[in-house]
Specification:
With 632 residues, this protein is α+β, with helices and mostly antiparallel strands. It contains eleven helices and 28 strands. The radius of gyration is 26 Å and the shape is globular. The model has no long low-confidence stretch (mean pLDDT 95). This is Glycoside hydrolase family 2 immunoglobulin-like beta-sandwich domain-containing protein.
Length: 632
C-alpha cells in the first residue's frame, strides 16, 4: 500500500515521435504499452526536453558544440508535429480507504494530453503552470499502472531570420513561454523551442483533506527584537462527509545533523464541509530575537524549518507540507536624489552587485547539483542579487532553495520582453501574449510556487517592456503591498488594524512594471541600459559614463578558459581572432566562424584599441585566454 507523500517519476521513461506511433493513448495505456527502447521508442529524459531526449539517444549532435546546431532541424522547417512526442512510463501505486492519489506535473511546455490506464485528461496550455490530476479512481487494483503523455510544442514557435535577431521573428511572444528559444544576441536558437515535460513529475498520496499552497510571512517590531510568523493555508475536503481536522504547525532549527530544536508548536481544530475548499489562517507565532536571514556578505543565511500537518479524526495524518523559511524584511524604494532604486534588508541598505540570469542550460537539464554549483559560483563572486531575465524562466524552487542558502537576492521577471512584445525589429506585437488570462493564470501560480523563499526580493513585469495594460494592472493589484510593508515607519506598529499579511497573494515585496521603469535605468522606459561591448578602461571613471542610479543590465566581453574552448569546439574553433586594420586606423577583430556563431564579443572596436594586444600579440589559444584573464 502506498505511503503518504510524494514519489518522483524521474526514471524509466520512454519517448517516441508521435507521427511514428500507431497506437492511441488509450491503447498505449491498456493493450499495447511499449516494453523496451526499440524503434520508434527510445530512452527519455524526464524532466527534460525533446531535444534532450534526442541528444541522449545520439539522434542529434550536441547543439552547443561547434556549429552542430546547424545540423539539427528547426521546428520552423519541420513543423510542430516533428517535435510532438509521446512519453511513456509505468508506476507502482495502490491505495484503499479514504486515500487519494494525485498525478502532478510542475510544468509542461506547451500543452499535453495525459492517459492513465486508458483514461484521458487534458493539460491546458502554458509553460509556467502546475497541473494536478486526481487519478484515485482509475488506478489498477494490482498497483501496476500505465502512464502516457503526448506533449505539443508552443503554438507559435516562429521562424529564425537569416541573420538571427532578438527573439527571431518574435512569434514566440504570442505564447506564454520562454522567449529566448528563438535565439538572441547571446544565444543560438533552440530547435525544439524547449518542448517537453521539462519539470518535475510526481505521484502524491494524501488522505481525505489536502493542504495547498501555504503562505508564510514574517513581521518585526521593536527594532527586530520581536517577530511574528504568519501562515495561511488552503484546505480541501475531497469526501462527501464533514471532516473534523487537527492542524499543527511546528518550527524547528537544525542544531547538527539529525538534531533539531523545537522553536514552536501550535495545534488548531476546525471542521471542513463535505467536498469543500477553505482558507485557514493560523494565529501568529511569536519569536523573540529570531535569527535573521541576510544577503550574501551581510551576515548569515539563517533558515528555520516550518512543517504544517493536517490530521482527520478517524483517519490519522492526511497531508503535510514542509519548507525552509528565513526571517527577513525587504524594502525597495526610489532614491529621490539619484532616481535609482534602493534596497534594504532588515532595515539595512544593500549595495546591489549582480547580473542577468537567463537559465542554467538551454536543454533545461536543471539538476540540483548544477543549480548548487552555479549559484554558489555567483556567491563566491561576491554577488548578492540575480536578475531572472524576462525572456527566460520563472526559475524553479530548487534554484530558489540554493539562493536562500547562499544569500542571493532574486529579481524575478514575468515573460515579457521588449523585442518580442512591441519594441523589436521587425516590429512585434505590443499586446503581449494572445491569451491574457492564461498569462495571469501562469503568473499567479508562479507567485504561489515561489513566494515563501526569503531570497525572492522583487517581481518585475518584463524586460525592457511593460506587460499590456490589463495584465500590468492585474499584477499591480495582485502584488499590492500589505500596509505593513508599504513604509519602514510601520516597523514599530502592531498589526491588529490590518488583515493578516499571509492572506495576500504576495504583499511582502515590490512589483515594478518593467526593467527600465520606476528606479531602473532612466526610469521612463527609454533604452538606457547597457553598454554591450568592450569599453576603454578609463571611461568607467568618468562622471558621465552612466547617468542613472541603477543599471538593470550591462554586457561585455567574456572569454572562457582554453580548456572550455577545446571541449566545446573542434580544432577549427581554436583559431584566435585576426586583427584587421580599418581605413580610419582602428583595429577590428575577425573571429573564426564558430566564435562568430556563438556570439563572440571582441576586445576592440572603432573606439577601443585591442585590449589583448596591449599585453603583446597572442601566439595561440592558450596565450590568448591567459591574456584575457589578465585583462579581467
Amino acid at each position: 500500500m502506498a505511503k503518504l507523500g510524494k514519489t518522483k517519476l524521474d526514471s524509466g521513461w520512454l519517448a517516441a515521435r508521435s507521427t511514428e506511433v500507431e497506437q492511441t493513448g488509450i491503447q498505449l495505456t491498456t493493450t499495447h504499452p511499449p516494453t523496451s527502447s526499440s524503434p520508434p521508442w527510445m530512452e527519455a529524459v524526464v524532466p527534460g526536453t525533446v531535444l534532450g531526449t534526442l541528444l541522449k539517444n545520439k539522434l542529434v549532435p550536441d547543439p552547443f558544440y561547434g556549429l552542430e546546431n546547424e545540423a539539427i532541424l528547426d521546428i520552423a522547417d519541420s513543423g510542430r508535429e516533428y517535435y510532438t512526442f509521446w512519453f511513456f512510463t509505468t508506476f507502482q501505486c495502490k491505495v484503499s480507504g479514504n486515500r487519494h492519489v494525485d498525478l502532478n506535473f510542475r510544468a509542461v511546455n506547451y500543452s499535453a494530453e495525459v492517459y492513465v490506464n486508458g483514461h484521458k485528461m487534458v493539460l491546458p496550455k502554458g509553460m509556467f503552470r502546475r497541473h494536478s490530476l486526481d487519478i484515485t479512481d482509475i488506478l489498477y487494483p494490482d498497483g501496476n499502472n500505465l502512464l502516457a503523455v503526448i506533449v505539443h510544442p508552443p503554438d507559435h514557435p516562429g521562424e529564425i531570420p537569416p541573420k538571427g535577431g532578438q527573439g527571431g521573428d518574435h512569434e514566440i511572444g504570442k505564447d506564454v513561454a520562454a522567449q529566448y528559444v528563438e535565439g538572441w544576441d547571446w544565444m543560438t536558437p533552440i530547435r525544439d523551442r524547449n518542448t517537453g515535460i521539462w519539470d518535475e513529475v510526481s505521484i502524491y498520496v494524501i488522505g481525505p483533506v489536502t493542504i495547498g499552497d501555504p503562505h508564510l510571512v514574517s513581521t518585526f517590531f521593536d527594532n527586530y527584537k520581536r517577530a511574528y510568523l504568519h501562515a495561511t493555508i488552503e484546505l480541501e475536503n475531497r469526501n462527501s462527509w464533514v471532516a473534523d481536522c487537527t492542524l499543527t504547525i511546528q518550527v524547528t532549527t537544525e542544531l547538527e545533523e539529525d538534531t533539531s530544536l523545537l522553536e514552536h508548536f501550535q495545534t488548531q481544530h476546525l471542521s471542513i464541509s463535505a467536498n469543500a475548499r477553505t482558507h485557514y489562517t493560523f494565529p501568529p507565532l511569536f519569536f523573540y530575537k529570531p535569527n535573521l536571514w541576510w544577503p550574501n556578505g551581510m551576515g548569515k543565511q539563517f533558515l528555520y524549518n516550518v512543517e504544517i500537518t493536517v490530521d482527520v479524526k478517524g483517519h490519522g495524518e492526511s497531508d503535510s507540507w514542509e519548507h525552509q523559511f528565513g526571517f527577513r524584511k525587504i524594502e525597495s524604494t526610489i532614491d529621490p536624489a539619484t532616481g535609482g532604486r534602493l534596497f534594504k534588508v532588515n532595515g539595512q541598505p544593500v549595495f546591489i552587485r549582480g547580473g542577468n540570469w537567463i537559465l542554467s542550460d538551454g536543454l533545461l537539464r536543471l539538476s540540483r547539483k548544477r543549480y548548487q554549483t552555479d549559484i554558489k559560483f555567483h556567491a563566491d563572486m561576491n554577488f548578492n542579487m540575480i536578475r531572472c531575465w524576462g525572456g527566460g524562466l520563472a526559475e524553479r524552487p530548487e534554484f530558489y532553495q540554493y539562493c536562500d542558502i547562499y544569500g542571493l537576492l532574486v529579481w524575478q521577471e514575468f515573460w515579457i520582453t521588449g523585442d518580442c512584445d512591441g519594441r523589436g525589429i521587425p516590429v512585434s506585437n505590443p499586446n503581449g501574449p494572445l491569451d491574457h488570462e492564461l498569462f495571469l493564470l501562469c503568473a499567479r501560480d508562479t507567485i504561489k510556487l515561489l513566494r515563501n523563499h526569503p531570497s525572492l526580493s522583487l517581481w518585475v513585469g518584463g524586460n525592457e517592456q511593460t506587460p499590456p495594460e490589463d495584465i500590468n494592472t492585474a499584477l499591480q493589484n495582485d502584488l499590492k503591498l500589505h500596509p505593513y510593508f508599504q513604509s519602514s515607519n510601520k516597523i514599530n506598529e502592531h498589526l491588529k488594524d490590518f488583515s493578516d499579511p499571509s492572506q495576500y497573494l504576495d504583499g511582502t515585496r515590490s512589483y515594478v512594471q518593467g526593467s527600465m521603469w520606476d528606479g531602473f535605468a532612466n526610469g521612463q522606459g527609454d533604452f538606457t541600459d547597457g553598454p554591450y561591448e568592450i569599453q576603454n578602461p578609463e571611461d568607467f571613471f568618468k562622471d558621465d559614463f552612466y547617468n542613472y542610479g541603477f543599471n538593470p543590465e550591462v554586457g561585455s566581453v567574456g572569454m572562457p578558459v582554453a580548456a572550455t574552448i577545446r571541449a566545446t569546439m573542434p580544432p577549427e574553433g581554436w583559431q584566435i581572432p585576426l586583427l584587421r586594420k580599418n581605413s580610419d586606423g582602428s583595429e577590428e577583430e575577425v573571429p573564426n566562424p564558430i566564435w562568430k556563431y556563438h556570439k563572440y564579443i571582441g576586445y576592440s572596436n572603432q573606439k577601443v584599441l585591442d585590449q589583448i594586444d596591449l599585453y603583446g600579440s597572442a601566439k595561440d589559444l592558450d596565450d590568448f585566454c591567459e591574456k584575457v584573464r589578465l585583462k579581467l
